[in-house]
Design a protein that fits this description.
The chain has about 240 residues and is mainly alpha-helical. It is built from 9 helices and 7 strands, in the order H-E-E-E-E-H-H-H-E-E-H-E-H-H-H-H.
Amino acid sequence: MEFSSVSDTGEETRSSQLTLDRDEFERKELVYIPIEKQWYPLSKCLWSSTVKIPGKATLSSDYPDLEDFFVKRLKVEKADFKNLVKELKSLAGNTDYVPEIKEIIHAISSMMPENGSLQDLECLDILPVNSPHSKQSQLWNSGQPFAIIDRLKLGRGFRNAQPQAASLLAFELEDVKLLQPFIQAMNLENRYLSRISKEESKATGKALHEGLTKQFQDRAYHLLWYVWLLSLGLIC
């Protein structure tokens, strides 16, 4: 019994020491990042991350041999799925960090989120959108009216329209392909241009003028897409 008591006391002592270590690193900002020449508290540190997170220091590149110390002893976290979602939430509505938000969205998508796993994000302004009412990308939530480019010709037609008719998710077609897991987890598949636009063209007579036909089709794109989006309430 005495041995057990001593053992329990030892565990308590180690636990108390760990708490003191963490508190001291936090309070005195004892983590130094050489390239930034700046000191950080533990709460602003991540051990590793595939993307740059504003206001956070990544330690693995500066202290590769101290993983056990930082991760196991001081409980510094890695930028896993849970933490990336947490950081994205913290940046909601902050248009100063649109490039960083895009990178975090890419990182989350690469982790193949399951349907419904991002419900907490749906009402937050974390989606970069190019709106005809602003020269800079805005941050919207999933309940606002915007479309997603998933076809090259459709995207070109909307972007070249004068005036621009619809608000579009601020990612290029190549990015959208990589972001399909994220888009599905956010329940945004119904925003694809290919699903909400419709193209029709008819001609009568035996002879067709190829140049005029193409000109008509190009102009018809803008009108057809605009009417279709207007009917679905996706034009702000």
